[in-house]
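Structure tokens please, single chain.
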Amino acid sequence: MKTTIEAPIAKKLPKTLEKHNDKRVDDYFWLNQREDQNVLDYLSAENEFYQQETSHTKEFETSLFEEMKARIKEDDTSVPYKYNGYWYIVRYEKGKDYPIYTRKKDTLEANEELLFDCNSMAEGHGYFRLVGLSVSPDNTMITFGMDTVGRRQYTIQVKNLITGELFSDAIENTTGSSTWANDNSTIFYAKKDAQTLRSNEIFKHKIGEPEDKDTLVFTEEDEAFGVAVYKTKSRKYIIIACYSTLTNEFHVLKADAPDEKFKLFQKRIRGLEYSIAHFENQFYILTNGDNAVNFKLMKTPEIETGIEHWIEVIGHRNDVLLEDVDIFKDYLVVSERSNGLNQIRIKRWDNQEDYYLPFDNETYTANTGTNVDFNTEILRYSYNSLTNPSSVIDFNMKTKTKEIKKEQAVLDPNFDKDNYTSERIWATAQDGTKIPMSLVRRKDTKLDGKAPVLQYAYGSYGSTIDPYFSSIRLSLLDRGFIYVIAHVRGGEYLGRPWYENGKLLKKKNSFTDFIDCSKYLIEQNYTSSQHLYAMGGSAGGLLMGVIVNEAPNLYNGVIAAVPFVDVVTTMLDDTIPLTTGEYDEWGNPNDKMYYDYIKSYSPYDNIKRQYYPNLMITAGLHDSQVQYWEPAKWAAKLRTYKQDTNKLYLVTNMEAGHGGASGRFESLKEDAREFAFLLDLEGITS
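Here you go.
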């Protein structure tokens, strides 16, 4: 017989927050003290409550994990790519959680050189991540960034690839990435503000010298901007990129002359977004200048980079979003999006050919891949759909022939992609706008209003969630679930205006779009409110927080992963990582107009005494993107307000940050936990 367990109740220590003569009382403000034992005790109590409440699903959760893991090829290898005379390969070994980085000189038959075995490097750490691998031009050294906390504060180190030894260089609190000058002795890197974690400084470092000898070459004073540094594909220039939500600025330096000063490319103009690539004696610029909302492609001589010298290469189109370009010796490859669908356009520089790769359905994702070589006719791209596993394809742009280099293996004898079907459907929003959804299900799942549906969305920052294949998702589909991606406003699925109409003072469109999609799924007999579930993370967790306040009766259960739910308080605190850089996304609440608008939807400020659906909320103690206390405070307040006996779980990873667990298979345990929550609500036990 199951014993009733009392849920943890966080103590109330009221704190009055006042802005614009408006007072808000926050009973749980105290939870933002990460080192306070009372805070840690509360989070631990919530974790223990979750473990006890779900003890009956643990065996099922374990079997789900093993089921998902069994579909993944453990001894897997990436498709090799060649750069500067070496083939680079990432592989995984059976029973191990982390990647192994290797290379081979000249040919794939050459002896393997071990760069990094992350499995041994991760020993003794609850979290481990390796980023920013950068090989010196003479191939003798490699720089890398390492994080063992999950807070995205990386330490850059240098390894001698001839001897295998680590140099004494250890540069802390960086983005993890670094860029070599062509002298094989100088690197450039971005350092972070220790408190806000904003990347705000670019330094020059001489290999072998102590960090305190490093030269500061650029400081970003505007708190709304971050900085990064990288080398052009042509290897001729080192670039400093200054970026914010709405504005860009670049500074360039010849990679052969690391001790000279960076030159301003084009000074920032608020609202002017642009990115640059280099080829021969020209820079190519992707920009929204002159009201090119969906962007256009320009070029300019490398000696005259100001905007007054930019010449149009591909003009603006109202119905096509220009997303990216890849430059080759003989070809320009353009990544576009039309009516929500990825397109890859291939154009010869001599204008003898101009064509698109053919794709044949409405629920696919196609992206250019790792294309580091200039002098090649081969374009590498990836393709997958909601029903087709991912493929890596090498396409010969001259002969128009393709070779599938690798197709994702699904190690399940019962898997047959023909058992599944996908479609794109359109709901009508409150204002009459058509909102697309990508949907996948088993063909034998009946559309009788009784099927469980998991509806997912993100809907912020212009980030588009394309329809993609997931072997993990099969554990839901094979148990009768329908999976839906709602392409709500706030992303860029239907072009840049789709984003503009889902941010700042139009942010509520993201929320009402999602709710209207839910209503459509019910009206069209895909499901019912007893079987409809919603899921979103980070800014998508904000979306979850709003829908449970505004339309709780539509959903049986909601998963909010590391949710951004205390929007007013966070956006008023410029000491929190990322806050100042977010003003152009959400608005600056120091302005009363934005304060009032944000407060009107902020989930934490709008909790009501009402029914709420079953809720699983997750957090990461070291999260640098959404601080752990936001979901913690939200859960604590919900417990005292909700007028029902539905489940409410707060699960905090005490070792990880925003991305969750770091191991290849450890993250599957989080997926299994979430799936067990949904399946348990459906009464599915195996």
